[in-house]
Amino acid sequence: METIESIYHRRAVRHYTPEAVQPAVLMQLLDAAVQAPSPLNSQPWSFAVFCGRARLAGFSTRIKEHLLLTLPSTCDLHEHVDRMNRPEYDAFHGAPALVLICAKPQGYSREESCALAAQNLMLAAHASGLGTCPVGFVRSWFRLPHIKDELDIPGTHLPMFPLVVGHPDGRPAPPNHKRPEILVWADGASG
Ligand SMILES: Cc1cc2nc3c(=O)[nH]c(=O)nc-3n(C[C@H](O)[C@H](O)[C@H](O)COP(=O)(O)O)c2cc1C
């Protein structure tokens, strides 16, 4: 039941209290992340953890500059670009911690595996009373070679799935999750 509760009630949380997430708690979440399945059990994930709202706010300012320069030419998310132009825009939603799931150089289906690890982490965080939000927008900045260098992320490892973690400030309204779109359902009677 707890798993079903987490699946149905986890939300992308975009408001956090200033309370820090303790390192031991973050470690438990990483431990839940690495229980995810991966092809041939290759476990092609690794983690960079950045704590502190001031640190993340500093990243956000730099990411905003980077995205405003690069995003308009490469994608059509203009509504989001407009939002970024506002001074209060924070790519990390004021969260106290960022977990950047990175793909290791070896392993199979690295993107899918990192996403499954991310989902484990988000469900485990929800079950512990914490909030999370994937922040895909920031990924390209963490992939810049000079940023990886500055942040001690090995050049061989590819930032794949960034997500923030913190204590939720309020409960987000559930968005509309559509009913499953079933393309084919061949029953066993005649097959
Ligand atoms: C790969 C990925 C990237 C995302 N990037 C962002 C992001 O940059 N900023 C953000 O606020 N939410 C981001 N989200 C969260 C989605 O907007 C959110 O999951 C979706 O609206 C559904 O809401 P729910 O998670 O509460 O069910 C991302 C989600 C995924 C899966």
Structure characterization notes:
This protein is of the alpha+beta class. The protein is built from seven helices and four strands, in the order H-H-E-H-H-E-H-E-H-H-E. The longest helix is centred in the first third of the chain and has 22 residues, at 53-74. It has helices at 2-9, 23-33, 53-74, 78-84, 110-127, 139-142, 145-150; strands at 45-51, 97-103, 131-134, 158-166. Helix content is 40%, strand content 14%. The protein has a single domain, classed as NADH Oxidase (3-Layer(aba) Sandwich).
- Mean pLDDT, nearest integer? 94
Tell me, briefly, the overall form: globular
Category from helices, strands and their pairing: alpha+beta
Spatial sequence of strands, sheet with the most strands: 1-2-4-3
User: Distance N terminus to C terminus?
Assistant: 34 Å
Number of helices: 7
CATH topology category name = NADH Oxidase
**Overall helicity:** 25-40%
Number of strands: 4
For CATH, the homologous superfamily is named as NADH Oxidase
Q: Architecture, CATH level 2?
A: 3-Layer(aba) Sandwich
Query: What sequence of helices (H) and strands (E) makes up the elements?
Result: HHEHHEHEHHE
> Could you say how many structural domains there are in total?
1
Q: What is the C-level CATH assignment? A: Alpha Beta
Assess the beta-strand content as a share of residues. Answer: 5-15%
Biggest sheet overview: 4 strands, antiparallel
Give me the Rg, rounded. Answer: 18 Å
